[in-house]
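3.2 Worked example (two chains)
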Amino acid sequence: MLITERYEDQIRGVLSCYDRVRLRETLPSWHYAQGMTSFLYANQIRIFDYPAFAQSLREEVRQNAERIAKENGLEIEHIRKIKAFRKENRIQDILKQRGNHPGLVHIFSAMETCTSYKPWHDQKTGKTFLKRLSEN
């Protein structure tokens, strides 16, 4: 069953993309330490368990990408130097080889900078929370 059929009562329109689709999610409450701390408390995750929690999410995303690549007969290409790499050029080369037919063309993997946190216990206040890694 197509996703558009499954959720047709909830869909107001359909977006067609003829060039590419880039999926990039943002979780607004995770963009700052206090928001992430609140999320952990709300989900009953101990602050000092945060590194294991984040690692498990990372693994889940990686495994899902590998599954999708395998299902589509693709290999994930890791980009080491993002600024010097033109994804559009690489995709054009791939399309020349595989043909310009519908379907997943390629999956790139890259390390990008993001906000990082560390668990912290303030001895003065007795509170435990996440702190940005760049904070002192």
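3.2.1 Second chain
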Amino acid sequence: MLPEDIIIKPVITEKSNEAIEEGKYTFKVDKRATKVDIANAVEKLFNVKVLKVNTTHVRGKDKRVGVHQGKTASWKKAIVMIDTNPEETVYMKKGGKETKTSKKYNSSIEGFMGM
């Protein structure tokens, strides 16, 4: 699946807005997507470093309009925690040489509210 197919839309609630300060962003995702798929999609779409992904299945609710009864669709929610302080990491290669990672990541997802 393409990253655009995995991430459907952001979930904007009071609780999710408070979690943005901690680096946690909430998305509605495809039901078939795994945590690894979600992490890779967020990294590619927003150029951020994903630390952790939590997922839940949200069940559809029973609804009633007059005499007609029905059910809303169930969906999958993903809470993605990103690295808010990306730094270069230094590690030792074979032979004792120091190597730094050269990837530059964003510290937040720009335009999250206006997706």
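3.3 Remarks
Residues 3-100 form a domain with the Alpha-Beta Plaits fold (CATH 3.30.70.330).
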